[in-house]
Design a protein that fits this description.
290 residues; 5-stranded mixed β-sheet; single chain; Protocatechuate 3,4-Dioxygenase, subunit A; 2 domains; 20% strand; binds fe (iii) ion; alpha/beta; elongated; binds benzoic acid
C-alpha cells in the first residue's frame, strides 16, 4: 500500500475517483480536490484554523431553511454567483447583460396590465418606467414578458416587511405589439443584505460593506429568445462601486430623470414631481448566446 504523504495526497485522492459517476462528475471533483489541496499547501492552516472553517460552514448550513439560503448568500458575497453567471451568459452585442437573481424573487407575481401601478404604499417617490424590448437585430418583440420586483422606499421587499401588502412592488408585464411596456412604481432604495448570520460575520471580517445599491429587478423573456435575469441600478447611488454581491455592470446603471410637470404627471396618472426611467431591453435568440 502506498503511504499517504503531503507530496502524493492529491494524486492518491484524485486516483480514487477512477470508478466514479460520469466523466463530468470526475472532472468537477478532480478540480475541487486539487484546488482544496492547493489551498492547504499554500496557507498551511493550523488544526484550529481548519476547525474554524468547518465551524463556519456548519453554521452556514444550520441557518438555512425554506426561506433563508445562507450558502447562496456566501456564493454571492464571494463573487462566485456573478462568475457562474458570467461564464453561462456570454451574450451577443445588443443583448441586455445579466446579473444575480437574489433571494427575493417570488415566482407567482400577479400579471399586470401595461401602465399598472405596482406600488401600494407606504410612501415613496413616483417613477414611470417605460421602454421597448428588442431582439439583437433591433426588431421590437411583442408579447415579451417582464417580471419586475423591487424594494420599498426604505429598502425592504414585501416578504421582509409586515407593513407592505403581499406582492407589493411586484408585477409581470407583457409588451404590446410594438414591443413597448410601461408601468408606475416608486424609487427603490439601497439596502443591506442579511448580516445576522455567518455571511455577515465574514463580510465584517473582510471589512466590506453589506449594502447593495438601489435597483429594480427584471426577468425579461420572449418565446424563441434567451430570457435575461437582470437589474436596473439607480444612477448616482453611493453603493454602485461597493455592491456587496458584485452585481453592478456599467451597462445596467440607469438615469432616473426628475420631472416637475403637473400637466405631464396628470396625463401619466402619476404624482408630481416624478422620475422617468426610459430603458430598452435586448434579447438574444436561443442559440445565439454563449
Ligand atoms: C437582491 O438583490 O435582492 C440580493 C441579491 C443577492 C443577495 C442578497 C440580495
Ligand atoms: Fe434586490
Amino acid at each position: 500500500m502506498q503511504p499517504f504523504t503531503e507530496h502524493n495526497a492529491t494524486d492518491i485522492v484524485v486516483a480514487s475517483l477512477a470508478e466514479s459517476g460520469s466523466e463530468r462528475f470526475r472532472q468537477i471533483m478532480t478540480s475541487a480536490i486539487s484546488h482544496l489541496h492547493a489551498i492547504v499547501r499554500e496557507v498551511e492552516p493550523t488544526t484550529a484554523e481548519w476547525m474554524t472553517a468547518i465551524d463556519f460552514l456548519t453554521r452556514t448550513g444550520q441557518i438555512c431553511d425554506e426561506k433563508r439560503q445562507e450558502f447562496i448568500l456566501l456564493s454571492d458575497v464571494l463573487g462566485v454567483s456573478m462568475l457562474v453567471d458570467a461564464v453561462n451568459h456570454r451574450r451577443p452585442s445588443g443583448a441586455t447583460e445579466s446579473t444575480v437573481l437574489g433571494p427575493f424573487h417570488v415566482p407567482d407575481a400577479p400579471a399586470s396590465p401595461v401602465g399598472a401601478n405596482i406600488s401600494h404604499g407606504p410612501g415613496g417617490e413616483p417613477v414611470l418606467v417605460r421602454g421597448t424590448v428588442y431582439d439583437t437585430d433591433g426588431r421590437p418583440i411583442g408579447g415579451a414578458t417582464l417580471d419586475v420586483w423591487q424594494t420599498s422606499a426604505d429598502g425592504f421587499y414585501d416578504v421582509q416587511d409586515d407593513r407592505q401588502a403581499p406582492m407589493n412592488l411586484r408585477g409581470v408585464f407583457r409588451t404590446n405589439e410594438d414591443g413597448r411596456f410601461w408601468f408606475r412604481t416608486i424609487k427603490p432604495a439601497s439596502y443591506p443584505i442579511p448580516t445576522d448570520g455567518p455571511v455577515g460575520e465574514i463580510l465584517a471580517a473582510m471589512g466590506r460593506s453589506e449594502m447593495r445599491p438601489a435597483h429594480i429587478h427584471f426577468i425579461v423573456g420572449a418565446p424563441g429568445h434567451e430570457s435575461v435575469t437582470t437589474h436596473l441600478f439607480v444612477e448616482g447611488d453611493p453603493y454602485l462601486e461597493s455592491d456587496a454581491v458584485f452585481g453592478v455592470k456599467e451597462t445596467l446603471i440607469a438615469p432616473f430623470t426628475k420631472r416637475d410637470d403637473p400637466g405631464q404627471a396628470a396625463d401619466l396618472q402619476i404624482g408630481n414631481p416624478f422620475y422617468l426611467l426610459e430603458w430598452d431591453f435586448g434579447l438574444a435568440r436561443i442559440g445565439d448566446a454563449g
